[in-house]
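Practice problem 4.
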């Protein structure tokens, strides 16, 4: 597969996965806990796959490539937390998820910094999309920290808002990738 096609495909997979995970994180939707779990799990798998494919499409070593690799690792860390510690140890599960979210945020900010210096079509969309993804991941991680501290005030809504900010960012990044390639 050509590198430009890999980047577009990876970006599309990430967008689909992020939207799916955001739907699973939205308590206002009438879904069972198992449906929510499955949406979040499969969404994170698609995000990890998308980030990995996008990184593979980057032909040279760069902060952008490293950022996508870190994002894929972050999603994989979230998946480990969701699967291994699903019911046995909720505190450890939350710590794995928080760690994965911070890794995704770091990866997103690395991508944004590299895109900022780029002079190709789609630079604004790619930069803004990556920044929104990093902000969304950070809000989700903060929500997880508040959950661990038993601060129930606004922690759930912060995580939901973060999920949707991340989703908007991935869609904008997909538009930018399509324009760039």
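Answer key:
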């Amino acid at each position: 597969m050509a590198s430009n096609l890999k980047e577009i495909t990876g970006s599309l997979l990430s967008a689909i996965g992020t939207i799916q995970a955001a739907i699973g994180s939205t308590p206002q939707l009438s879904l069972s806990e198992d449906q929510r779990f499955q949406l979040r799990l499969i969404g994170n798998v698609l995000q990890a796959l998308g980030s990995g494919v996008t990184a593979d499409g980057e032909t040279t070593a760069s902060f952008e490539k490293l950022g996508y690799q870190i994002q894929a690792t972050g999603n994989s860390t979230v998946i480990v937390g969701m699967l291994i510690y699903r019911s046995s140890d909720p505190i450890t599960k939350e710590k794995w998820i928080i760690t994965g979210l911070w890794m995704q945020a770091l990866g997103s900010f690395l991508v944004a910094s590299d895109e900022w210096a780029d002079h190709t079509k789609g630079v604004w969309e790619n930069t803004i999309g990556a920044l929104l993804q990093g902000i969304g991941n950070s809000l989700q991680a903060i929500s997880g920290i508040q959950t661990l501290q038993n601060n129930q005030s606004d922690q759930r809504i912060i995580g939901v808002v973060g999920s949707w900010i991340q989703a908007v960012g991935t869609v904008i990044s997909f538009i930018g990738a399509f324009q760039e390639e």
